[in-house]
Amino acid sequence: MDEDSFSDFYTAQFADLWRFARRRTETGEDADDITAETFAVAWRRRDDIPAEGARLWLFGVARNVLANQHRESRRRGRLHLKIATEDPPPVALEPPDPAAAGLWHALAALNPDDRELLLLRAWDRLAVTEIATLFNTSAATVSSRLHKARRRLDQHLDTARPREDEHA
């Protein structure tokens, strides 16, 4: 099938194929995807399209595309379920040297949001405005959260430091 013939075939079959896909999918966007993928396969295999029964061949391709999509969706669902039921790997915060162990323990004791904020600011050297853009919030909010996170970090550091009177 040459390009002009395929264009005519596409025009003649598009609406029926889209309706076919729409009746078998949850949303119009899904039907759009099925229709597009079906015509992409048809374009790649245009030499295999039979002269007689081209419409039925196209609907057969659409059925296969739908089956593939359903299999992929089920696979993705099983993967999401598996990920959701497994414990996340522990965050490895290993001190680069023993002298910094107190800081690392204090960082590990923080909640993940506080730790992420502090590390973005200290390690990644992001400005408050850049962090605000990253989190889609205001710079004032980030500044306030950073202040509170630093205060919580200081509290953890204070509890980790031995007091002078404890040594005596």
Characterize the structure shown.
The structure is a single chain. With 168 residues, the chain is mostly helical. It folds into two domains: 3-85, Rna Polymerase Sigma Factor, Chain: A; 98-167, Arc Repressor Mutant, subunit A, CATH 1.10.10. 74% of the residues lie in helices and 0% in strands. It is built from eight helices and no strands. It has helices spanning 3-23, 28-44, 54-85, 101-109, 112-122, 128-135, 139-160, 164-167. It is elongated, with a radius of gyration of 29 Å. The termini are far apart. The mean pLDDT is 86.
Radius of gyration (Å) = 29 Å
Total number of helices? 8
Helix content: over 70%
The structure class reads mainly alpha
Protein name: DNA-directed RNA polymerase sigma-70 factor
GO molecular function: DNA binding; sigma factor activity
Keywords: DNA-binding, DNA-directed RNA polymerase, Sigma factor, Transcription, Transcription regulation
Organism: Winogradskya consettensis
